[in-house]
Model the fold of this input.
Amino acid sequence: MLGSSFSADTSGSRARSALAIFVAPLVFLMAVGFVWPLIQAFVNSFHLNTSHGIDLEHWTINNYLRLADPLYLEILLRTLRISAAVTAITAVLAYPIALFIARLSPRAQSWMILAYVSPWLVNTVVKALGWTLLLRTNGVVNTLLLQLGIVDTPLRLLLTETGVVIALVPGHFMFALLPLWTAICALDPALSWAAGTLGATPSAVFWRIVLPLTLPALIAGLVINFIMNMTAFAIPMLLGGVRNMVVSMLAYQLDLISLDWPLGGALAVTLLAFTLALVWAGQRIAVLGIAGRAAKI
Amino acid sequence: MSLELVGVKKSFDGVRAVDGVDLSVVKGELFVLLGPSGCGKTTLLRAIAGIYGIDSGSVVLNGRDLTRTPMHRRNMAMVFQSFALFPHLSAFDNVAFGLKSRRVGGDEIDKRVNEALALVRLEMLAARYPNQLSGGQQQRVALARALAVHPDLLLLDEPLSNLDARLRDEMRVEIRELQRRLGITTLLVTHDIGEAFAMSDRMAVMREGKIVQIGRGADIYHFPANRFVANFVGPINEFPLTKVEQVSGRVLGLAAGELKVWLPAETADHSVETEPRLILRPENLRVAVTEGSTDNSFMAEIEDVVFRGGATECRLRIGALKLFAILPSADAAALRAGDRVTVGWNAADGVVTGAR
Done:
């Protein structure tokens, strides 16, 4: 729409060249900093790593077959398990929190949103250190649980998947919260009033009106949340340790320690394909949620 | 007796939106709340629906005290200015929503939804979604959705203001006919005077959270309680009265300090301290009449004549006093700017009110 209105304009070409000037630095940066290394990784992933460097003469899919190694599969499974757990907890918490915030005064809303965004503004290493203090055997969490009599012996939370999940939930919560909160605020309050005056109880208003109309926003947020969980590095590294290795740590090891760039490339390409498939699926669901009613006719 | 409001008050952050409203709406009547924006009429409607709780006072419907009843148990239905159709539900499901909330059985739902859609002549479009309907059709679905639940009270919040002018006139008649046919007690909020006159059995004019006058449209138009009402419901000519006295059984006043005018008989008790004003509707002025054929008549000069179709507007001057008259175009054909004519009116056509 925007493009066609630009070209229909007599000053369209000038507007387009002005646009190009503004976009060029970004395109350059993306091309040099992201696309080119990605192409490199893609090309490398189809060659063998030898003691003399990468053998660019011969093509092979050997690297991809090596990824099927049980050790690597276990790492992938663990990464998926942690990410899914974090996303599931986020999904459960998102509605109560977003609805609570949306009912506050505009001023209180901005403070609350700032509070939920703040974990993202803190350096992950500092955050991980903070979690170490909270989660260790004689840390705040265990002291509290022991004193309340909920557990008899301190829980082992550090260097476990549980600890990683606990730390990732607040760290990536905003990616689900922000779109959901925005969608809830954008709902015409008259919709809830109409439902209420027609006899729907407050919980029926939520299940029959608010939820169906804002679910696409939550799903969009959860997809981003899941991807962020999949790619998290510092938190799993510092709270999970090498015994709970995740894919990002494996990539670090392959590319920067073993210097096996072809295998690292194969891992990167596999993960990218997997993630893109997920984004696509998430968007399909979100779009279907919106357009489903039109499609039913 | 159907709806009884007693001393209803509602404030937002210390600002009084509704400031002590007493009102009773008769069963089967279409009652209009009329007022400028910000007068509290929509707040009052929402308070009746239970969307807002009220600070004090009571809401009683058919003898049931609903003051503390949550909105979903009041058995009212509301049509919103934005229509508030559920965008993810078809027209059918929108109309069925209230019935499902009331746990009506499936066959009964089908029957009543089709009935309601038939009332607004939309049976054919039951499967459509709100974004596939025109503004007028959306309005009809919203109305059908409200009627389907057989509410004890129908609340309409500026239901026509989102429609274009022609459609608005059509829907005015259509809603009125439906309301009469079903005999459903209805409260309608509007700032549109024409809508209020055309649709209401009775109306209340609101200002700053209070009701200023309640009555039939014609009474409010011809006998406004004060200057605000007079001015709000139609154009007026207004003159301050500096003297009001009884002269041989009739009432004589001095308008604008220079015109001796005969006033309606019932205005004798207006003292000069209330800053009384003489208010004249422009269509009550007779232009180019024979001197003496009306109680009051003066020589005036025509400043401007504006043809408006069936009616013609005429601006006149009596000395320095400006007057605005509206007369049937048939009577105005000969009038030209600059003509000197006699302008007159009968004493009973004027209204005397205080300044407020």
Confidence is low (pLDDT under 50) at residues 1-9, 292-297 of chain A. The radius of gyration of chain A is 24 Å.
